């Protein structure tokens, strides 16, 4: 019991620090989550981080919260998922609550506005870092590369020509293509949960 409480406290504090010191939302948090959970704590592997990122992006809710919930569950079960989720949510809640109490028009202050301009630039780099890392670690098959670069090309065309096309539709199309190719090739026979 003491070991489980210790694991829950560690999960809460780790994700509390991630939530407290990361600006820019879930995508900016991904590289910090990976550094903490894969590199330092060894709670999950790189492959699991890739999988949870895809699942967290495809399911409702903020991506950082979904990642925290998965890591917490894998590390310490249901209570671990609650601890990690609360940890990543609490800093934002506390900061926004304090700001709403004392500063009505925060962005009207020139110093705050300039600080957020710099933060936006830093967040952009964090998001690019996550994208590059995911590309380098993805499966080195022709199918995975075609889907990744096809999606990138589609996103660029949608942005350049300002087409009204949802990114969710792109995710669903990529998933449907992968599933169709999987079914055409034939699912590998499984025995005892492992592919032969």
Can you walk through the features of this model?
The two termini are 39 Å apart. This protein is 79% helix and 2% strand. A hairpin with a 2-residue loop joins β1 (190-191) and β2 (194-195). The protein has a two-stranded antiparallel sheet with strand order 1-2. With 196 residues, it is an all-alpha fold. The radius of gyration is 20 Å and the shape is globular. The longest helix is centred in the middle third of the chain and has 40 residues, at 63-102. The protein is built from seven helices and two strands, in the order αααααααββ. α1 (2-21) crosses α4 (63-102), α2 (26-40) crosses α4 and α2 crosses α5 (110-137).
Order of helices and strands: HHHHHHHEE
Tally of DSSP β-strands: 2
| Major sheet description | 2 strands, antiparallel
Amount of helix: over 70%
Structural class by secondary-structure content = mainly alpha
Distance between the termini: 39 Å
Please state the oligomeric state of the protein chains shown.
single chain
Which strand-content bin applies to the residues? Answer: under 5%
Topology, element by element:
Layout: H1 2-21, H2 26-40, H3 46-58, H4 63-102, H5 110-137, H6 142-160, H7 167-185, E1 190-191, E2 194-195
Antiparallel strand pairs: 1-2
Helix pairs in contact: 1-2, 1-4, 2-4, 2-5, 3-4, 6-7
Descriptive terms for the model:
disordered C terminus, globular, mainly alpha, single chain, 196 residues, 7 helices, two-stranded antiparallel sheet
């Amino acid at each position: 019991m003491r070991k489980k409480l210790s694991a829950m406290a560690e999960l809460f504090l780790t994700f509390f620090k991630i939530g407290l010191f990361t600006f820019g939302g879930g995508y900016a948090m991904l590289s910090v989550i990976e550094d903490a959970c894969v590199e330092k704590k060894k709670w999950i592997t790189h492959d699991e981080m890739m999988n949870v990122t895809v699942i967290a992006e495809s399911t409702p809710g903020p991506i950082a919260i979904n990642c925290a919930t998965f890591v917490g569950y894998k590390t310490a079960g249901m209570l671990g998922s609650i601890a990690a989720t609360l940890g990543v949510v609490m800093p934002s809640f506390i900061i926004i609550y304090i700001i709403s109490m004392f500063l009505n028009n925060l962005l009207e202050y020139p110093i705050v506005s300039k600080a957020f301009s710099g933060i936006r630039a830093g967040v952009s780099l964090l998001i690019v870092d996550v994208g590059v890392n995911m590309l380098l670690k993805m499966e080195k098959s022709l199918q995975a590369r075609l889907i990744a670069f096809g999606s990138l090309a589609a996103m660029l065309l949608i942005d350049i020509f300002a087409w009204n096309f949802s990114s969710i539709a792109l995710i669903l199309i990529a998933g449907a293509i992968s599933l169709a190719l999987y079914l055409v090739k034939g699912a590998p026979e499984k025995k005892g949960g492992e592919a032969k």
